[in-house]
Structure formats: C-alpha cells, structure tokens
Backbone:
C-alpha cells in the first residue's frame, strides 16, 4: 500500500533496498548441533557478541540462530545514528544499586563505542557509509529551548565533557541547518552517520569468515539453560545468549519482558544541489529536535533525507509489523513534519517508507546480563540507541561469558532487572496515552505556551 505515487512501503527497509534488496537467507539449521555459545538473534547485539567472543577465544564454537536473515530487525531498519549517546535515567540506575561513578563510567563507555565501531568496521573491511559528524539537536519554540537548557544542565551535572558541546542560538542553528521556526539548538561532537544495513550485513560476513555458524530461516521455539530448541533441531550450548531486542516478546514466556515500540522512517528522493543550498546541512549532522514526539534524521550517502518518528507507537498485544510495512497515516504524519521543517522541499518525492520495533523495558533503561549459574544471558532494551549501545553490549557479554573481570562487567546496567510490563489492555492504553499526550503537548507548546504539564503526566503513566 502506498499513499504517494512511487513510494515503496515496507519490504523491510530502504537500507536493504539500497543494497539491491533483502538478501537471500543463509541455510537453516539442519538438525541437532552442540556448540560452546548459542546466540539467538542475528542483529547488531548477537553479531557483536559473536565477533568479540571469537576475538578473545578463536577456538570457541559459536552459533547464531536467526528467524529471518541477519539484519531483518531494527539493525537493518534504524535511523543510522552511531551516536554513543546516553538517554536513559541515570537516577534509576543509582536507585537500583549503582553509583554515581559507575553511571559516569557507563556514559563514557557508550561514548567510546563510536570509535570502537569505526575501528572494527575498518579492521573487518566493512563499508557502511560511516561519516563522523556532530549530533544536532534542534529547538523550534521556547519550551523546546527550555528542554535544551535542562539537557545542558544535566550533562554538566554528570561530568559530560563540555568541550563536546556547542550551544546554538537561532543564527547559529541556521548556519548549520535552516529549519523553519528554528530558535536554537545544541551540537554534540563525537557521533557518526552509518548505513545500518551495510553495517549489520558486513558484521554477518565478518563473523562467518571467522568461523561462526550463522543459521538463518530458523525459528526458536524455546530457551533453557544449555539448550535452544528450534523448528529445525536443537542447539545444545555451554552458554545461551538472548539478543532479540524488540522481537523478545515473540519468544515463549517473554511476552511482557520488553515492549516493542514502533518507529517509522521515510526516505526522500535525492535532493538537488539547489535544494541542499536552500537548507544547508553541509556538516552532514545527525539531527533530531526537542519535541516530545520527536523526529530524527540523517543526510544519506547519495543525498536523500531519511526522516523518522514514532507514528502509531504500539500494536495491541505486542504485535509486530509485516516486513516493515507501516501505516498510511504514519507516512502522512512524517511527510507533514518534514514539510513543516523544510517548506522549500514541497513536492520532493518520498521513495520509501518503512517501520521497525525497538525494545523498551518497563523502566525505560537498557540492560545487559548473564547468570553464571544457568549460563544464560541477554542484552537489549536500548530504547532507540541500539547502533552504538549494542557494541558495548557485545563486548560486555563476551567478557561475562568468558568470566573476564573487565571494567565493562562492573557498569551499572549489568544485570539490571525490572518488572515486566502490565498485561493487555493496560500496556496498550498506557503507551498510546503517553504518545497522545506528547503530541498534544507539542501542539500546545508550538503555539507559544511553556513546557506542557501533560507530557509529565504521560511520563508518569508509562513509567518513562
């Protein structure tokens, strides 16, 4: 289904289309096997874990089990932000037993993932259109400027390097990106833009070259200590890692573990040189705004704008999309937001639209963990920061599985656990109420009001 002539809706994502279309899956599991480590999920988390385990111990027998193909999920559908960001509640980690020093160390580890991903991509000969750039946060009203200032105050309070921050007024923002109604912003150095499907498919080839077995087209039907059961056979393993992020609720017994939040993206036709001159963006920054129902965007390798946002945030019963197809109303919302911000692009074609899911824990805080008694581990709940965070997760899981006493295994997200989401219809009501209040708050604030209390009410409803 399309709402614009020539717009492809779904078929996983534009990023795969940019590579000639989704790949043919590798061979599935063909019977029972025994390995040292079984990893469920062929996205960034699973593949980074496999890569670092192999680097630390090349003799390990490692198997990655993937239902569709590596990169089918969020790893091949996201906005391509290698940001190294930290957007979870620092206070919640401390309340769960962490320390201030540990949270600051975790913040630094996330920031360091940008250099680490770039280094490993170069080492493994992965061309993923990686371009170092700033992250540019945009404010288009007074209330959003208030949130920018609050953001600055929090970063200072947690010892974030001031040298990485550039506060922008309206003119400063316009010198980088001409956004209609832009009144200021914040530039944060140390990020990068990537083509996400190129990165995940390159990682899959890299671990395969290293001898890791990749079983695609294989559906996991159960997880237990020392065992992964599938529709193609049983994998017995010394350690089992769950790396399924937003697809976790589809596994038996995990329906309420993490909530699969929907995010959707449109990709424009390539802009002309005149159109780029009109809006700027010469620094190729990854861009978002301070709205409650925010957008995120990148300028792609071939001169498109990939522009994302929430759309319809959650499907009842933790249901998933069909090969990335998104709702017509979501495409209209994203297109309207893009035109509001960049009115000079009126008439630009929308070549592709798609959606994916990101994993959200009940407290909206990411975690990585491993139980040495059962030898079972997990990572995820990235809440939209998976491109960089998954790399830290992979390194941490490798150390946990091998019993290495590294700095990573002491960070406060390790073995951080929260209660499950409520049963339906409570979680459907909470999440949709949250984003309904967010959108209403944005409309109120855009008319000149201060920060809306409705957004805070929504946060309390959903535990955000």
Residues:
């Amino acid at each position: 289904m399309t709402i614009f002539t020539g717009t492809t809706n779904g078929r996983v994502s534009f990023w795969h289309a940019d590579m000639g279309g989704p790949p043919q899956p590798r061979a599935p599991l063909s019977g029972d096997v025994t390995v040292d480590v079984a990893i469920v999920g062929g996205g960034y988390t699973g593949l980074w874990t496999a890569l670092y385990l192999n680097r630390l111990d090349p003799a390990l027998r490692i198997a990655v089990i993937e239902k569709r193909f590596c990169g089918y999920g969020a790893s091949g559908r996201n906005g391509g932000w290698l940001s190294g960001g930290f957007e979870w509640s620092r206070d919640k980690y401390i309340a769960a037993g962490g320390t201030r020093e540990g949270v600051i160390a975790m913040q630094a580890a996330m920031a360091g993932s940008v250099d680490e991903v770039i280094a490993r991509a170069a080492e493994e000969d992965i061309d993923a259109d990686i371009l170092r750039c700033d992250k540019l946060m945009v404010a288009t009203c007074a209330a959003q400027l208030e949130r920018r200032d609050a953001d600055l105050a929090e970063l200072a309070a947690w010892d974030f390097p001031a040298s990485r921050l550039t506060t922008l007024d309206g003119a400063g923002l316009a010198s980088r990106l001409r956004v209609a109604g832009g009144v200021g912003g914040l530039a944060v150095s140390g990020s990068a833009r990537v083509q996400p499907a190129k990165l995940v498919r390159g990682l899959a080839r890299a671990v395969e070259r290293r001898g890791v077995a990749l079983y695609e087209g294989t559906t996991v039907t159960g997880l237990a200590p020392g065992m992964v059961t599938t529709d193609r056979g049983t994998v017995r393993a010394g350690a089992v890692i769950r790396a399924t992020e937003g697809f976790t609720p589809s596994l038996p017994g995990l329906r309420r573990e993490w909530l699969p939040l929907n995010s959707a993206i449109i990709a424009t036709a390539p802009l002309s040189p005149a159109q780029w001159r009109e809006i700027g963006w010469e620094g190729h920054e990854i861009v978002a705004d301070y709205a409650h129902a925010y957008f995120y965007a990148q300028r792609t390798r071939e001169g498109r704008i990939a522009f994302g946002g929430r759309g319809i945030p959650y499907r009842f019963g933790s249901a998933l999309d069909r090969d990335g197809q998104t709702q017509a109303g979501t495409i209209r919302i994203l297109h309207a937001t893009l035109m509001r911000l960049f009115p000079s692009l009126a008439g630009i074609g929308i070549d592709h639209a798609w959606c994916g899911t990101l994993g959200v824990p009940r407290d909206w805080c990411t975690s990585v963990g491993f139980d040495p008694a059962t030898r079972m581990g997990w990572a995820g709940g990235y809440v939209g920061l998976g491109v960089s965070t998954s790399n830290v997760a992979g390194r941490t899981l490798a150390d946990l599985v091998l019993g290495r006493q590294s700095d990573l295994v002491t960070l406060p997200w390790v073995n951080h656990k929260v209660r499950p989401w409520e049963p339906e219809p409570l979680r459907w009501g909470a999440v949709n109420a949250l984003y309904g209040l967010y959108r209403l708050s944005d409309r109120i604030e855009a008319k000149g009001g201060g920060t809306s209390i409705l957004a805070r009410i929504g946060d309390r409803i959903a535990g955000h």
Summary: Residues 424-464 form one domain. DSSP finds twelve helices and 18 strands in the chain. Residues 100-123 form the longest helix (24 residues). The longest strand covers residues 350-360.
